[in-house]
Amino acid sequence: MSKTVLYQSIGEELIRWDVDVEAATLTRRESVMLPSKVQYVWQHPSRKFLTASTSDAPSGNTPDKGKVHRLCALSVGANGKLALIGESAPLPSRPIHHCVDRSGNFAFTAFNNPSQITVHRINSNGTIGALVEQTVKVDVGIYAHQVTVTPSNKLVVFPARGNDAKDGKAEDPGAIKVYNFKDGQLTPAQNILGGENGFHYRPRHLDYHPTQPWLYANIESENEVHMHRIDGDKIVEKPAFIKTSLAAPRDPKMHQTTSAIHVHPNGRFVYTANRADSTVEVNGKKVFAGGENSIAVFAIDPTTGEHTRIQSIDPQTHHVRTFSIDPTGRLLVSASIRDMWVKDGNDVRLAPAALSVFRIGNDGKLTFVRKYDAALNGKLQWWAEMVEL
């Protein structure tokens, strides 16, 4: 009988929670400490191992590059208990995302500052193998944010978000870079420029439909979800459908973005998270100024792939960076990265970061069940995901 667990990162700590899907509860178990702050974690297709990327650098375009950047391997016990295995591989800078190809033989790591991609072999025992030196230099765009492999395992897709204009600095255009992939080598395939030749286009994350040749990408600063068709070994560059991720018109005064996106295992729904974290000064504290923090739910037309928003629900926390759907498709758990001061009448109160648990109905809609507050102690809850053992 399969077992579902949730792994949660707070700083350099990776924590295991048992998941009771029927009761919609999480039970905290033990944790393991990694070399530096966890940036992303990926389950190996064998389910026997995880890969984790870590860094001591701050997020964003900070001049502080940090010193400890690693790609690590962990074994997964029968109950989900983790243990570091092998030697971690040094990385050139802060990794923002990584993935493992569908054969389980290669790990791809994306770096944002500066934009870069590396490929490592994964040994048969799950440990991190040698860096694969690339024979061709590929265009990595500006501010990479994710790296994934298409279901065919022939293409690597690399959203490079670009940057909004800020503090007198001009906008950097975004793009979705697509590479051919064979035997660990990457070669250029496509350069998808949305918006206005990449301007006003911030592709952040994407996910694939489980049975149809469709992908869904969220466009961060534009608060949109784009659907692209996949035609053989090419992604159709023009989106077939573009929909807003927000329930109400976007307030341009608020910092309002998307984060993760996931297609339901049954292919009937797609979910994305909206984040708002603008603040104002109240009683000497930076207090939430407003905006939409939500999980947006879209129904997918099984014939065309068109996605139509059917719900927007409050996770009762602020700034959800990651969320996941359990493999049976019955639970969704979101993770907010930081605490937030909020107005409470004439006073303010602290709204802690948390894991928020939702049931998923047969119609795809979410029902909030409970949340588990996270003791951050000045750190960030950067990542969390449910996996099946």
Structural overview:
The protein is an all-beta fold. Helices cover 0% and strands 54% of the residues. The protein is globular, with a radius of gyration of 20 Å. The mean pLDDT is 96.
Count of distinct structural domains: 2
CATH architecture of the largest domain: 7 Propeller
Give the termini distance in whole angstroms: 9 Å
- How many beta-strand elements? 33
Radius of gyration, CA atoms, in whole angstroms: 20 Å
CATH H level, superfamily name of the largest domain:
YVTN repeat-like/Quinoprotein amine dehydrogenase
Average predicted confidence as pLDDT: 96
CATH class of the largest domain: Mainly Beta
Main sheet: strands, sense, barrel: 5 strands, antiparallel
Helix content: under 10%
The fraction of residues in strands falls at over 45%
Task: Using the coordinates shown, work out and report the CATH topology of the largest domain.
Answer: Methylamine Dehydrogenase, Chain H
